[in-house]
Write a structure and sequence with these properties.
The protein contains 3 helices and 5 strands. It is α+β, with helices and mostly antiparallel strands. The chain is globular, with a radius of gyration of 14 Å.
Length: about 120
């Protein structure tokens, strides 16, 4: 069962001791890497200019944000994932997905990010 106390988890587990946007981005990257078990199946709900149809079933392969991004190059954090549609790979925002099939830990991590990013 998914826990709905997103704000407590965000404030006291994920972003505790983060003092700027760069540290928050790194904290989110680590949290998502530690808690998302890829691959998993999802529905694309975004409206990007990619050739992915709205409501298309996709396979999420991996989080593609890097914990090695330098602070000088950092602008803001957008959780992006690599997805597969047929034989084509795309980069899409994690917030543009609805999970179809994933373990509970993955579902919780995605729900936490979507709560935070909206």
């Amino acid at each position: 069962m998914l826990e709905s106390n997103h704000q407590d988890r965000i404030d006291y587990k994920i972003l505790a001791d983060c003092y700027n946007d760069y540290e928050q981005g790194q904290a989110w990257t680590l949290y998502l890497l530690d808690n998302m078990d890829c691959p998993f199946e999802a529905i694309y709900t975004g409206q990007s200019k990619l050739s992915i149809a709205l409501q298309q079933e996709i396979t999420v392969l991996a989080l593609i944000n890097s914990i090695h991004d330098s602070e000088e190059e950092f602008e803001c954090f957008f959780a992006k994932v690599e997805v597969e549609v047929g034989d084509t790979l795309y980069e899409v925002p994690l917030s543009d997905l609805n999970i179809l099939s994933a373990d509970l830990r993955t579902q919780q991590a995605v729900a936490d990010w979507q709560y935070f990013s909206n």
